[in-house]
Amino acid sequence: MHEPVGQEKEKKTSVKKELLSWLRVLASSILLALIITNFFIVNASVLTGSMENTIMTGDRVLGSRLSYIRNGPERYDVVIFRYPDSDENINYVKRIIGLPGEKVQIIDGKVYIDDAEEPLYDGFTHEPPEGDHGPFYVPEDHYFLLGDNRNNSFDSKDWETHFVARDKILGKMMFVYYPKLHWVDKAEAE
Questions:
Q1: Can you give the pTM of this predicted structure?
Q2: pLDDT value at residue 185
Q3: Is there a catalytic annotation at residue 94?
Q4: Catalytically annotated residue among 14, 17, 21, 50
Q5: What residue segments make up the domains of the chain, in order of their start?
Q6: Rounded-to-integer distance, Cα 105 and Cα 97, Å
Q7: Is the predicted pLDDT of residue 30 greater than 90, yes or no?
Q8: In terms of CATH architecture, what is 43-189?
Q9: Catalytic-labelled residue, pool 11, 21, 28, 94
């Protein structure tokens, strides 16, 4: 038996409405995801052990793009940034050690700022840092970044361009979300 012409037309209209509804939901979801990832959060995968034990190899982290709207980055913040010597769209994670206008020097693995007698706190480092580097004079609107696993971290002390410009800092890291959820904040450094 054939369905009456009116019911067949109604069924086709119903299918079209359902498809249109799903397409709207999909488009809205994609738009919302783009807005969130471009204006609110930033994601990174940690591919090396340079931040161990704070962040482990293979961890995936989220940061806030809104953290520095009112105030700039601060010493000991863990940030997600773009590597200064490359145009690749790869996000990296390190800790801010030197601020704009400061002199940073590493002597016997200890970091000294502006010829201070006492080194910076480094209780978050993976093992006692070694080596001498610098002095480095941090330009205005730039930052000096080091990994927490200093002896095994390719960072500001090693890069051709030793400093990360403020506009390359994408956000302040908030937490590790994979494989195990945990918060990372400045308090771990104090």
A1: 0.80
A2: 59
A3: yes
A4: 50
A5: 1-39, 43-189
A6: 11
A7: no
A8: Ribbon (2.10)
A9: 94
